[in-house]
Amino acid sequence: MESVIRLDRLVKAYGPRRGVVDLSLEVHAGEVFGYLGPNGAGKSTTIRLLVDLIRPTGGSIRVLGGDPRAGGTVLRARIGYLPGDFVVGARQRVGEYLTFLAGLRGGAGQARIGELAERLDLDLTARVGTLSKGNRQKVGLVQAFMHEPDLLILDEPTSGLDPVVQQTFLSMVAEAKAAGQTVFMSSHILSEVEQVADRVAIIRDGALVTVDSVVNLRARAVRRVQVTFATPVPVSEFAGLPGVDSVTVDGPVLRCRVTGSPDALIKTAAQHSIVDLLSDEPALEELFLAYYEGRDHVAA
């Protein structure tokens, strides 16, 4: 498959501290690629290297077939970039700023500014300095998407967005993929990555832990589940179920952890009268630990 991003033994050192270490991965044309890791793992460092905001200490980077350092404006015109700390001049009006950016790109994206602003509920007449964090993030999304780039590089793109706008963003990503665009996005939110990504990379301490499919990612996801029944249930019915552990029963309330598919738990619970069911967002930290421990076990 055609490579849109190729990193080969990439290293970025900050004096004695390393941002990324021997990082090698490949992103294919037309896929949505999720990039996961805890704070300080090296996600933003990787992204800044991709767009040539910082330079590597070692290894090589190819983006859209070119070197980010040598590609210049021709290469950058094919990329939509949203940094994790999106900042813009406070005195400009939103519409003026976006029109200015379109002008720098030869008018590319001008026609889509109004459409994207309407979808994201963004006021084009507001001054940027008056915007909340979430509305500034919307401005960043519009400027990244509006010129329909071949590659979207998005660093924590839903930061500050309310749940409704998050869903609009995910629809925009799905549409970009359907149009043949490639999306590389970092995130702390497992559910959004699950919804749109084809593959996911997990990074820790600047080193790649794994690249895996979303199907396998979901199989390792851990959820905390609470089921309230109409009458008390015996703990023995649930304690030995596949993928279910940490089971406790307090009268009619059952609490447990579920790894992967909840199918066995749901089928067993359905044999009783259920009053309520709560399932927490999959714990990203526990997912990381599952991969880390697996890697450490193999390394041992």
TrEMBL record:
Q: Which GO terms describe its cellular component?
A: plasma membrane
One GO BP on record is: response to antibiotic
The entry's localization annotation reads: Cell membrane
Tell me which residues make up the ABC transporter domain.
5-230
What protein name does the entry list? ABC-2 type transport system ATP-binding protein
Task: Give the GO molecular function terms.
Answer: ATP binding; ATP hydrolysis activity
UniProt KW keywords: Antibiotic resistance, ATP-binding, Nucleotide-binding, Transport
What's the protein's topology in the membrane? Peripheral membrane protein
Top-level division of the source organism's lineage = Bacteria
According to its UniProt record, which protein family does this protein belong to?
Belongs to the ABC transporter superfamily.
Which SMART domains does the record match to this protein? Answer: AAA
Primary location group: membrane
InterPro entries assigned:
AAA+_ATPase, ABC_transporter-like_ATP-bd, ABC_transporter-like_CS, ABC_transporter_ATP-binding, P-loop_NTPase
Pfam families for this protein: ABC_tran
